[in-house]
Design brief:
It contains 14 helices and 2 strands. Helix 7 packs parallel to helix 10 and helix 8 packs across helix 11. The longest helix has 27 residues. A two-stranded parallel ribbon has the order 1-2. The structure holds zinc ion (2 copies). One zinc ion (ZN) binds next to helix 13.
């Protein structure tokens, strides 16, 4: 009887986790997915005519896309914060510690961080309106090019890996002035993703973005899909609980919450964010299963008073 109940619970958790995965990721990408082939019915032709000066439509849709993605990620996180199992099983990444926080306060702090969305938003607006992006980015033709989305994510993560290692290793002064504020979280939660400093966001996100756009030339829908996946995935890997898709991501070398928690806990492993390929190639990868602090001990979990 007990075995049947356990089996039933496992089946329920897996089904809900699978459903949450196949619902959440398309929702995150809903703006480019919905508009890539319908934009001509929605907007006037002069708004997306790329033969003249940069028009703000592409920029506005890009910012809207990231924001819509954030709304769905925050809804998903709300359900998990409430303890609801409708998005799958809730298992802490670091089972020996727990952190209690107020959802509204944390979400408000997350969305209002000047070093996060504001700095990146300014970068996107300036590079777009000053025509600093390669010509292809202003084109609305062709829909999302998924191979180029993957290329953008890989290049961006490789450059971010390099900058991240440099921030840790170049000098103590550079580390303190840039990345140290983000490392006060040894057991991060989803809302800590963009909590750091201006210098950290500039070196680890803005500079790589500026370089990636010169390496991979794509259209506006591809740029939108890449930016939306990138921003929201960076939040998701800071989650305090394992995601239902993490087992699959782990098997494919894609970034998981546990992989990134290893970096926050041990500092000198897992510098990559979206992929573990660069860490594996450079010998800096540490599997979460090989981290003692991530294995449940016999004692009751300790509350974390400091982050
Ligand atoms: Zn982090
Ligand atoms: Zn770091």
């Amino acid at each position: 009887m007990i075995r049947n109940t356990t089996k039933g619970t496992k089946l329920w958790d897996s089904t809900m986790g699978f459903s949450a995965t196949i619902i959440l990721w398309p929702l995150i990408l809903s703006v480019p997915l919905f508009l890539q082939h319908t934009y001509m019915n929605v907007f006037r032709p002069e708004w997306y005519d790329s033969s003249q000066m940069p028009k703000p439509l592409g920029l506005c849709l890009g910012l809207l896309s990231v924001s819509v993605g954030q709304v769905f990620v925050l809804c998903y996180q709300y359900l998990r914060w409430k303890g609801s199992k409708c998005t799958g099983k809730l298992v802490s990444v670091q089972p020996n510690e727990y952190r209690i926080y107020d959802y509204c306060e944390a979400a408000q702090e997350h969305l209002s961080q000047p070093e996060g969305f504001a700095l990146i938003g300014c970068y996107l607006a300036l590079t777009w309106m000053l025509h600093l992006m390669p010509e292809s980015y202003y084109s609305f033709d062709g829909g999302v090019q998924w191979d180029k989305v993957v290329a953008c994510l890989l290049v961006q993560d490789l450059l971010q890996y390099g900058m991240h290692r440099a921030e840790h290793k170049v000098s103590k002064e550079f580390y303190r002035a840039s990345h140290e504020p983000h490392h006060r979280f040894t057991n991060p939660r989803l809302f800590d993703a963009f909590n750091g400093s201006f210098a950290d966001t500039f070196f680890m996100i803005v500079l790589p973005l500026f370089t990636t756009k010169s390496i991979v030339h794509c259209n506006v829908w591809t740029y939108m899909a890449f930016g939306t996946l990138y921003a929201n995935w960076l939040c998701l890997i800071h989650s305090e609980t394992h995601h239902p898709w993490d087992w699959l991501f782990q098997a494919c070398g894609l970034g998981t919450a546990a992989d990134h928690h290893v970096h926050h806990k041990l500092f000198c492993y897992n510098y990559g964010h979206l992929f573990s390929y660069w860490d594996r190639a450079c010998g800096t990868y540490r599997h979460p299963q090989n981290v003692r602090q991530f294995r449940k001990n016999e004692k009751a979990p300790k509350p974390l008073d400091k982050p």
